[in-house]
Design brief:
Two copies of one chain form a homodimer. With about 325 residues, the first copy, chain A, is α/β, with parallel strands linked by helices. Chain A is about 40% helix and about 15% strand. Chain A is globular and about 60 Å long.
């Protein structure tokens, strides 16, 4: 299989991406390949600088770059020669099996929808983040910013998408899905969460275990934490800043270290017809390496196909 | 002045409340008094147990208790002899100047509105929490759960209420008000936050400095963090659990210790015609003591009157 990497994606690209790709390639089986997508001269120069073997990779030349601040739709239309636009073209045509980037996440989202499309039945694709628990296990928090204005039925689908992701990629059996809320009782929260609770409470699509609170995040009560993208993004950035603050103050142990985003390699875009991974903008080489390895894993477990199958049952249950 | 204390309010009441009252009383000037509201026999017994002088306090007998899980409106109607209902009666009739409780916060909210009413022009009263910054200063985060379904104009008023609170009680000059969001640009966030930004951007009622992110919470960029009560409550509980997790793991220093809720004594209900303080349900004696001292301070700086005055200018600006 072939993983396409946006060489120009991320705040520390192309150094971080090429260095990460070289590290990931060493863990790839012989039949699998990393396709480096970006300006050829930059790629060759960076490979040389980091002691990478150009023959170990496939290089796809794309001269342009979509910057972090650019408007996703406009940038994709204006820059067909950008690494992101080119990556999605390769994905669509089957020249790569999966595409990963730590670049403009809006452009990744729009590019994915335009090129490989949303899985039929999915209202809104979503992105997630891994939250480590104190006991060494992890939970998946979603959505983390892709859908700041989610509706109840969208939150319901996040429960399904997160559940399948947890099961197939993180090998959590029958994942416990919790709705993030401001109290455990059914009537707690705002209208959005009250309605979502009603949809979820008798779910046959996933193992809904009820409302959870901000204070439960580090405990092993829940495997999939469902919330809207506004709340999720605030939590994500708050937890990141807690981690950075603790490291800065020298307050760390193995659990605090497990909060380092570098370990988790980003998030698949859940609910689209292919494998697309989005990394953190501040990804360093370790994070990029882990993003590439996660991309391969998400493709290998056929996550997208598993979601499609679940959606067939899902539709039957609903109608 | 007289501060009324709900002796039965909080998970550790009446031990915590009586012990906290005894400690606070030692810091009260001679003319000021703490009025203990609850079952007389319980109060006298607890005073004896904690070595408190009954003559140092006024005791207001109220036999009933509103429990934490009870429905606020129903409980207040059914239990006129409860410490919360009785406290608001005393406040309304001027027998006490301020009322504080770590009990059922819903009942405190409803009781306040029914007894002393919202300040004219205030759409929704709000509650806040203190977030310590790494540099030793504090910021005020509001709303933290009173209004899980806030509208843009309600968020706007939170900016004003938080600003006045920061200025008069925490002596922060011209407080910087930030809107919590998922990006700093004006168009970021969901519809609620996009609309609130438009209302705030040219505010003459407070010093709006723009959007802030979850990652800015510990930095000294903002003095008043405005968000809806759903998001605020999630943040509040998450930060509390971060603090508890760090203490449990032995990862602490003076900054982490400053996150201890005990130091801050709860929150005034902002936007009502009197001084009403709500403490954390898990308040121990130190938290209760600080709640009583904060109640006295909020009354003394005439916070409610300052808000009324601001509202007069506010209305002029708007019409």
């Amino acid at each position: 299989m072939k993983v396409g990497l946006d060489v120009m994606g991320g705040d520390f690209a192309p150094k971080s991406t090429i260095s990460g790709a070289i590290q990931a390639q060493k863990e790839f089986p012989e039949d699998d390949q990393i396709v480096l997508i970006g300006p050829e001269e930059v790629i060759l120069q960076q490979l040389e600088e980091h002691g990478g073997d150009p023959d170990a990779f496939k290089i796809e030349h794309s001269p342009d770059v979509i910057e972090m601040g650019e408007h996703p739709t406009k940038a994709l239309a204006k820059k067909p020669g950008s690494s992101i636009a080119h990556g999605f073209q390769l994905l669509k045509n089957g020249h790569i099996d999966a595409f990963a980037s730590a670049g403009n996440s809006g452009a990744m989202m729009v590019g994915a929808i335009y090129s490989v499309n949303t899985i039929q039945g999915i209202i809104r694709p979503t992105s997630s983040v891994i939250v480590p628990k104190e006991n060494g296990k992890i939970s998946i928090l979603l959505d983390v910013g892709t859908n700041p204005d989610a509706k109840p039925d969208v939150l319901y689908q996040f429960g399904l998408l997160g559940s399948i992701y947890a099961q197939y990629v993180y090998h959590i059996e029958n994942p416990r899905v919790g709705l993030l809320n401001i109290g455990t009782e059914a009537e707690k929260g705002n209208l959005l969460y009250q309605s979502a609770y009603q949809l979820m409470k008798n779910s046959e699509d996933f193992n809904f275990v009820g409302n959870m609170e901000g204070r439960d995040v580090f405990k092993d009560k829940i495997d999939v934490i469902v919330c809207d993208g506004f709340t999720g993004n605030v939590i994500l950035k708050l937890l990141e800043s807690v981690y950075r603050m603790l490291v800065k103050r020298g307050l760390r142990d193995s659990y605090i270290d497990s909060m380092n985003y570098e370990n988790y390699g980003g998030t698949p875009l859940l609910g689209i017809n292919s494998t697309v991974l989005m990394g953190h903008g501040i990804s360093n080489d370790v994070a990029i390496k882990n993003m590439i390895l996660l991309t391969r894993e998400v493709h290998n477990v056929q996550l997208s196909k598993k979601i499609k199958q679940a959606l067939l049952n899902f539709s039957t249950n609903k109608d």
